[in-house]
Amino acid sequence: xxxxxxxxxxxxxxxxxxxxxxxxxxxxxxxxxxxxxxxxxxxxxxxxxxxxxxxxxxxxxxxxxxxxxxxxxxxxxxxxxxxxxxxxxxxxxxxxxxxxxxxxxxxxxxxxxxxxxxxxxxxxxxxxxxxxxxx
Amino acid sequence: xxxxxxxxxxxxxxxxxxxxxxxxxxxxxxxxxxxxxxxxxxxxxxxxxxxxxxxxxxxxxxxxxxxxxxxxxxxxxxxxxxxxxxxxxxxxxxxxxxxxxxxxxxxxxxxxxxxxxxxxxxxxxxxxxxxxxxxxxxxxxxxx
Lengths: 135, 144
Description:
The complex is a heterodimer.
Chain A: E1 19-22, H1 25-35, H2 40-43, E2 70-79, E3 88-103, E4 106-118, E5 124-134
Antiparallel strand pairs in A: 1-3, 2-5, 3-4, 4-5
Chain B: E1 23-24, H1 30-40, H2 50-55, H3 65-80, E2 85-92, E3 103-114, E4 117-127, E5 133-143
């Protein structure tokens, strides 16, 4: 089986491009519908649910892995204010850490990704941290 | 009553250790996983295709961890209002499968006063119909 190259600590600090995402009312409504989230402001599409930044998908050059071998270990979002329909968010994700650790299933690679989103003037709106575990 | 559940609560009901009301979610369906895949952009087929799930050693599809986190996000909005969520941080500790029915639960860890009202540090988790905690974490909300 052909495995992608192992992720190494050389990748720490590597970043995605800055990507502009527009928070669309319809996308909020579709997300709330899938989750069966009954928060009225989310059902209307006015305010994005707290986990909505998961829809902001970006890639970091050199960071590739087999989807079937990755586990989502942990996730955090921190907010200065909620995301609203019509927001234009400048996002970037970077490799905050890569390390190997022995766990129940043998040695695994932990990949920590840090994401941030600002408004167009550069004021922070939210940040996020993803822990991915690669078997 | 559509306002946030916690806003009207007196301080003594939000002391450290206070249990919060539950939010019970309907059982997860395969259709929901397909919809969540589309809405979130997570197209990993282990969540939507049994054949793919079996090739990686699972019995069948498993739910996106982020779906259970989204349930907890809704829980915080229900408790405190969608403008009031400052932080949510979770670990995905057990797999969730179609037909699992999750309940969001929580407890106050700490309450502090801020200019605009009260800031609460919460312990939150989603547990399945067997009372197994599948997604566990903490959150910070601000209420009046």
